[in-house]
TrEMBL record:
Coiled coil: none annotated. It comes from Hymenobacter saemangeumensis. Residues 777-897 form the Glycine dehydrogenase C-terminal domain. The gene is gcvP. The keyword Nuclease does not apply. It catalyses: N(6)-[(R)-lipoyl]-L-lysyl-[glycine-cleavage complex H protein] + glycine + H(+) = N(6)-[(R)-S(8)-aminomethyldihydrolipoyl]-L-lysyl-[glycine-cleavage complex H protein] + CO2. This is Glycine dehydrogenase (decarboxylating). Keywords: Oxidoreductase, Pyridoxal phosphate. The lineage of its organism: Bacteria, Pseudomonadati, Bacteroidota, Cytophagia, Cytophagales.
């Protein structure tokens, strides 16, 4: 009998194991069914009593058709609102070959630098762009957005001030309003007092101020000469931060030349769509004296084992895992994919074309000013780059302008008085200026003149504001202006990086699952990418539906009453969740409740976030089985009962086990007046089977770039929304410019809905999976993990399991016993590269171990390839243990092996070239070649180079580069 059945079923694309593979894997792990496996893995007490109530799963075609209708509700107007967000054009060659290319967007954070040289070079280019344009000495590889970069600058400088007891931070009233709001959010918990005012009148000479922040150009468009302000501030031992516009800095004197200590901002203007607020890469540049405390990731140059130049993440890159509650910031704060886009925009256009963008923008602003003055309109900015500040005669006239402009498909900025702001951009053309003039002419009942293009004009700024210093002088910014050259350069970098396009990335806790093409398609639609975050809400009805649906679905999945989509990373979600708990306690008068209990096994981001929220961290012990020590928890909950704010707990635990005491853990905290914060990093093992609210948590952040399929993008973007129980909902983040559910303060991200333009990815995933598909995804993740465990536990001890011997969706392989033979866990990680795999998570949460998570999107064939590789490596270790292989001169210690390594004329190593690069037959068919040998991290930290070094600087020093320098740091 023939039956009609849908073929385009998305779940079968996402959940890789088919029925035959599932049956085979169940036999291997010793379970008769998926249901038996889940019953033996997930404690009965926390299981959901009903199925998820979500819309019926859509096919890919049905989803894309429906989503097109939703997106079409967004109205794409010409945007001249400004305030840090501007229309721009991402060159098609970059859009197609990076933004839409899984070779770039599915890669992981470049902790394994030998197989991430492409992204690292692109990020070094980004750092160079920022260093050159800001005129400062060192820059990081991006932060979440301009507002959070400003907050990091404030806290960094507060930690560096020598003025004892200084807690005041001056902020110019010309700083972007969303930045001021975010600064207030970050300052309050740690006792910093914001003083907002006019920079021309403030007196910084007292002992109370440690820092000051300025905007360049100002939020209203005025360009001020801050040199005298900076000199006075420094005379009073006050640090100065300047938030700057990258495009304007091609014409304006750099902040570094004006004396700024830090420069922050947003690289969105360099080709990244506005996307209703994000994601965009914030930047942070500073003086070299702060290189050891600069927040975020820092890309540096080092050398590999062969003496070749190689890139890596330098200095404090993973300090939150090392220093935990003593960390100066939370480094899970990067926007790698977006900083790569911005860097490629600079590489493709080069300094001349970037400057021409700025010249064109400013020239058209001058033209617009002249035409509006001819109509009798007052423009109040004496010096400006791209923004006019118009003072109209009445509020009625302002409203008439707004009505006429919106009827013409144009958005301006409207002030609370009678002013109108107009910010032009590099996409603005003469006809756009004519259209703007026509709006005002019509409202005023006057005739608009005929515009003609001007061939040339003069900068009317004072000489002190006109940039004379060079920038982007490195050859990389002069070599790829033809599309063919640019295409080849990007492909050359892509080929150096291992991504999900090559093989599984079995990282525990990081859930590197499929980023399906159908989920990614809407991201680059103009209806999604071209909206300004402060556009009138009635123009964003499509986004409103996306937000409302997604919040409702996430509430159903988590069991919570409310969800905030604003946090734009998992760490930011942690912070927002803790602030919600703090807001709840404060509203009840319990300001003294500031103790956060955190298990020793917790993610390093947890204590870092708690400190940022003004809490005191108390560590709870773990048992020998890796679980929370209940006796220690009860003792400390009782001891700190009067001050207990919350417990931070990850579930399933970071050790990959469903702790059976989790309900008791939550009850203990609640009995002592605290709230339970759940880290949602392991939500991929909960969806459809249990939920944070069902377990007893009060708040949980969700990593949409993990469980809900937003790509990692090489280390960002991410989204970290939080779900909360009803009595915490009033304390979710708001926004100063666009109220979020009526809340107009407490923002944690610069944009009201954070990284709005990538939320469609998770929207698509849930729409096409439906409740049943999401539940099966969790079941498959658990099945795949237990299959790997079953295949590998004879070769590598599995450190922790549940009461039935099962792991959750991840497991920890213990490699510590190999140290006796001189083999470190790092050797295994590097050797896996020769087999074509990225390493699992190294030495976290237990030093000397590998944490493995396969996800539900990997087939049995891929799991077997990984297991075969790990078993083969175990045999290589055994050869060292038995003495058959030399303890130091062996295939593990020399891994990874590059093509250059094995193509030498005289091969002198005690193992064959074939064993080095083709350790298994499958590798021959699709060899991934690491581009550099093992990198010398210590050398890179001693000789810190964090920008593109001119080629000629290396011409006569090649021999010197291979000699380790044991002297002081650069």
């Amino acid at each position: 009998m023939l039956k009609i059945q849908p073929v385009d079923v998305f779940e079968t694309r996402h959940n890789a194991p088919d029925a035959a593979a599932v049956a085979d894997m169940l036999r291997t792990i010793g379970a008769s069914s998926i249901e038996q496996l889940i019953d033996e893995t997930v404690p009965p007490a926390i299981r959901l009593k009903r199925e998820l109530e979500l819309p019926q799963a859509l096919t890919e075609r049905a989803f894309l058709a429906k989503f097109k209708q939703i997106a079409s509700q967004n109205k794409v107007f010409k945007s001249y609102i400004g305030l840090g967000y501007h229309d721009t054009a991402l060159p098609a060659v970059i859009q197609r070959n990076i933004l839409e290319n899984p070779g770039w967007y599915t890669a992981y954070t470049p902790y394994q630098a030998e197989i991430a040289q492409g992204r690292l070079e692109a990020l070094l280019n980004y750092q160079t762009v920022i260093i050159d344009l800001t005129g400062l000495e060192i820059a990081n590889a991006s932060l979440l957005d301009e507002g959070t970069a400003a907050a990091e600058a404030m806290t960094m400088l507060h930690g560096q001030t020598k003025k004892k007891g200084a807690r005041q931070y001056f902020v110019s009233e010309q700083v972007l309003p969303q930045t001021i709001d975010l600064l207030r959010t970050r300052a309050t918990p740690i006792g910093i007092e914001l003083v907002v005012g006019d920079h021309r009148q403030v007196d910084l000479s007292g002992e109370g101020f440690f820092g000051a922040m300025l905007q360049y150009p100002g939020a209203d468009g005025e360009v001020f000469d801050y040199k005298e302000f900076v000199e006075k501030a420094h005379a009073s031992n006050v640090f100065v931060v300047m938030a700057a516009d990258l495009l304007a800095l091609t014409l304006l004197t750099s902040p570094g030349e004006l004396g700024a200590d830090v420069c922050v901002g947003n690289s969105q203007r360099f080709g990244v769509p506005m996307g209703y607020g994000g994601p965009h890469a914030g930047f942070f540049a500073t003086k070299e004296q702060f290189k050891r405390v600069i927040p975020g990731r820092l890309i540096g140059q080092s050398i590999d084992a062969a003496g070749n130049r190689a890139y890596r993440m330098a200095l404090q890159t993973r300090e939150q895992h090392i220093r935990r509650e003593k960390a100066t910031s939370n480094i899970c704060t990067a926007q790698v994919l977006l900083s790569v886009l911005a860097s490629m925009f600079a590489v493709y256009h080069g300094p001349e074309r970037l400057k021409q963008f700025a010249i064109n923008t400013h020239a058209l602003a001058q033209t617009l000013e002249a035409e509006l003055k001819a109509l009798g309109i007052e423009q109040t900015n004496e010096f400006y780059f791209d923004t006019l500040n118009l003072r109209l005669e009445s509020a009625e006239l302002q409203q008439a302008v707004r009505q006429e402009a919106e009827a013409a498909g144009i958005n301006f900025r409207y002030f609370g008085d009678t002013r109108v702001g107009i910010s032009l951009n590099q996409n603005t053309e003469l006809q756009d200026v004519a259209d703007i003039v026509a709006v005002f002419a019509k409202v005023l009942g006057k005739e608009a003149g005929t515009l003609t293009a001007r061939d040339s004009f003069e900068l009317s700024w004072p000489k002190s504001l006109i940039r004379t210093s060079e920038y982007l002088t490195h050859p990389i910014f002069h070599s790829h202006h033809a599309e063919h050259e640019m295409l080849r350069y990007m492909k050359q970098l892509e080929n150096k990086d291992l991504s999900l396009a090559h093989s599984m990335i079995p990282l525990g806790s990081c859930t590197m699952k499929l980023n399906a093409t159908a989920e990614m398609i809407p991201v680059t639609w103009p209806e999604i990418g071209s909206l300004h975050p402060f556009a009138p809400r009635e123009q964003a009805k499509g986004y409103e539906q996306i937000f409302n649906d997604l919040q409702a679905w996430l509430c159903e999945i988590t069991g919570f009453a409310a969800v905030s989509l604003q946090p734009n990373s998992g760490a930011q979600g942690e912070y927002a969740g803790l602030l919600a708990i703090k807001g709840y306690h404060d509203a009840r008068g319990d300001h003294h409740r500031n103790v956060a209990l955190i298990p020793a096994s917790a993610h390093g981001t947890n204590p870092a976030s708690a400190v940022m929220a003004g809490m005191e961290v108390i560590v709870v012990k773990s048992t020998n089985e890796g679980n929370v020590d209940m006796d220690d928890l009860r003792e400390k909950a009782a001891k700190y009962a009067d001050r207990l704010s919350c417990l931070m707990v990850t579930y399933p635990s970071t050790h990959g086990v469903y702790e059976e005491t989790i309900i008791d853990i939550c009850d203990t905290i609640h009995q002592h007046g605290g709230r339970v914060y759940m880290d949602g990093a392991n939500m991929n093992a909960q969806v459809g089977l249990t939920s944070p609210a069902n377990i007893g948590a009060d708040v949980c952040h969700l990593n949409l770039h993990k469980t809900f399929c937003i790509p990692h993008g090489g280390g960002g973007p991410g989204v970290g929304p939080i779900g909360v129980v009803a009595d915490l909902a009033p304390y979710l983040p708001g926004h100063a410019v666009v109220a979020v559910d009526g809340r107009q303060e407490g923002s944690v991200s610069a944009a009201p809905w954070g990284s709005a333009s990538i939320l469609p990815i998770s929207y698509a995933y849930i729409s096409m999976m439906g409740g049943d598909g999401l539940k099966r995804a969790t079941q498959m993740a658990i099945l795949n993990a237990n299959y790997i465990k079953a295949r590998l536990e004879e070769h590598y001890p599995v450190l922790y399991t549940g009461s039935h011997g099962r792991c959750a969706h991840e497991m920890i392989l213990d490699c510590r016993q190999f140290k006796k033979a001189g083999i470190e866990v790092e050797d295994i990680a590097k050797r896996l590269m020769d087999y074509g795999f990225h390493a699992p998570t190294v030495s976290f949460p237990v030093a000397g171990t590998l944490m493995v998570e396969p996800t539900e999107s990997e087939s049995k064939e891929e799991l077997d390839r990984f297991c075969d590789a790990m078993i083969s490596i175990r045999k290589e270790i055994a050869a060292v243990e038995s003495g058959k292989a030399d303890a130091k001169d062996n295939v593990l210690k020399h891994a990874p092996h590059t093509a250059a390594t094995v193509l030498v004329h005289d091969w002198t190593r005690p193992y064959s070239r074939e064993q080095a690069v083709y350790p298994m037959e499958y590798v021959r068919a699709a060899k991934f070649w690491p581009s550099v040998s093992r990198i010398d991290s210590a050398y890179g930290d001693r000789n810190l180079i964090c920008a593109c070094t001119p080629i000629d600087a290396y011409a006569d020093k090649e021999e010197e580069q291979v000699v380790p320098d044991h002297g002081a740091s650069h």
